[in-house]
Amino acid sequence: MLHFAVFILVAFIIVKLSAFGWRFSAGFSLVSSEQNKELSEKLKFHVHTLAHEIGDRSMFKYEKLLAAEKYIAKDLASFGYEVEFHEYTISDKVARNIIAYKQGTQKPDEIIIVGAHYDSCFNPGANDNASGIAVLLELARCISDSQISRTIKFIAFVNEEPPFFKTEKMGSRVYARDAKAKGENIKGVVILETIGYYSNKLYSQRYPPFFGPFYPNRGNFICVASDFHSRNLLKGLVSNFKKGTQFPIESITTFGFVPGVDFSDHWSFWQEGYPAVMITDTSFYRSSNYHGRSDTYEKLNYGSMAEITRGLCVAVGELIQ
């Protein structure tokens, strides 16, 4: 019995230790520039508008959800995109995915999607997920004047958060299912989820058990996550991201049952066999503000978000070429 108790204790300690990063990387210092400062201010403006001027936005705060929808659609249209709504009904209320698209010139039937959800979980939702929407909007601005081969769709998804999460009423689930039924040729989906929280402090990053020994100790990087079917999409994104910025980036290709790996709209596209990845700051593995009233705009690092936007502009630009 004593030996068994010691074994259990040792196993418990190993599991706990393996949930912290073991790779001691150096802190990352942002390079200040007028271009990054301007982009940082734009990102901050989007997050502040969604999280604080509008606030908690969901089917249960329907007027605020509509206000967020109006803000996002107006901004996307101002960049010259065609904007349309993908609608469905929940309890006599219309839920809308917001779609801004630009048709490719050489391969218009091949589609790249960049998406982020715009609802929140009974809280301000600054990082989750006004940060993702902010980056989506600035990516749309970045690519708006580009000549593109493939069709690009920027989609703000509704109803990612509970109680709709991983149900048939989740906005991205409805969209992905309809896209499959229509035979849409979606070549890749890039989902932006909780993009804004970073720390150079030691032991600021946690992981699912047994992943820690392979990843950094500091929470100062962006992560790209995929299933095995989407690994080529992940590899291309990471490689091209590095052409646009020196910001630290990590990646993981693993099974969907690993806690957190499928916790966003990319899951919906996996269900239909489309390649999809999530780009994230790792959410609750790094920030204690997840799904809390403390998820407010001043907690986010807009300089880091600007660097990530720059890197993604290059990476997504390569995808649509």
Keywords:
Aminopeptidase; 321 residues; globular; eight-stranded mixed sheet; 8 helices; 38% helix; 8 strands; alpha/beta
Task: Characterize the main sheet.
Answer: 8 strands, mixed
Beta-strand portion reads 15-25%
Tell me the number of structural domains: 1
Overall radius of gyration: 19 Å
Q: Please report the first level of CATH classification, the CATH class.
A: Alpha Beta
Query: What is the CATH topology classification name?
Result: Aminopeptidase
Globally, the shape reads: globular
The CATH architecture designation is: 3-Layer(aba) Sandwich
The count of helical stretches stands at 8
- pLDDT < 50 runs, ≥5 residues: none
Fourth-tier CATH superfamily name: Zn peptidases
Work out the oligomeric state of the chains in this entry: single chain
Q: What's the helix-strand series?
A: HHHEEEHEHEEHEHEH
The assigned structural class equals alpha/beta
Strand order of the largest sheet: 1-2-4-3-5-8-6-7
Mean pLDDT reading: 94
| Strands, count | 8
